[in-house]
Amino acid sequence: MLKAYKFRLYPAAEQKTMIANHIGSCRFVYNWALEQKIKSYEQEGRSLSQYDLNKRLPELKKEHEWLKKVNSQSLQGMTKNLDSAFTMFFREKNGFPNFKSRKNPIQSFPVPQHYTVDFENNVVKLPKIGKVKAVLHQRFEGKLKTATVSRTSTEIYYISILVDNGEELPEKQEFSADTTVGVDVGIKDFAVISTGEKIENPKYLKNSMKRLKVLQKRVSKKPKGSKNREKAKLRLAKLHEKISNQRNDFQHQLSSKLIRENQAIAVETLNVNGMLKNHHLAQAISDSSWSSFVTKLVYKAEWFGKTLLRIGRFEPSTKLCNVCGYHNSNITLDVREWECPVCKTKHDRDINAAINIKKFALQAKNLIVT
Ligand SMILES: [Zn+2]
Active-site residue among 164, 268, 302, 315? Predict the structure, then answer.
């Protein structure tokens, strides 16, 4: 069973430079590999595998000598990451893999193997970078899998280590309509459950979001290139990190609760990239960061032998009456409540959608007949 552990790193100045080199080189290889894949598909109709790409890496290194300074396994880790991104794209109908930008708030690179963790001395030894100070606040035992070193926009460093503790995953527990809930992304709320429960974003998160708008305005008012603008930017970046931590905590609590209280959870797979293009939804979707929430549900379901059921986007969960099945094509984004003209049931838009998600998911498993 795989578990992830995350620790703060305190690299020395020259180690920071090496980390920056690794980040830059890995981003370069990822973007190169994505381009190779697209080109080969467009020109030859051929899909390049991770193996094909790795075979081309030595040639790339000859063209760009600076790539030789970094751990070659980290570079190969990027072709693997790209491969996973494509698997997600095809299997989950997730967005097409994007090129990596240096502007992303969190920059990272993988360390697939040959690193060591020294709990006694609070040190992590990384290939090509050496012994880096760390705060190893949590001990673990097991086989070290891939580690990921990351740097935030406020220059905080982390290492996230995947460990196989050798334990088997528990067997999946049985589930039925009574022990399954459907969960939908709310428009106003973070999530809406088929039981009728609506889960708002917590107050502290909302307050931080309000503050975010204030700080964003301050940055834009300061003249470009000025010291004050840099200061305001740093404050903004710090708040972004705080929000991301708060959101993570909230999502952990909610996902644990849902997993604990139910045998199966049904969700819709969202095409986040597609939805971000829709201007009205952009804020709501990125704010609630639905996909990172679903990721937490996925692995917690595995840990506890529960089941995560996923239905495709193509099911019109918002537009169907969950009682009689009437299809109401008039449900636009601003419709919060509606009455079914056939069976006269009064619907809350989001609760109706959550009930439908549960229904579709169970139908797919032949667990309810309608
Ligand atoms: Zn109806």
Answer: 268
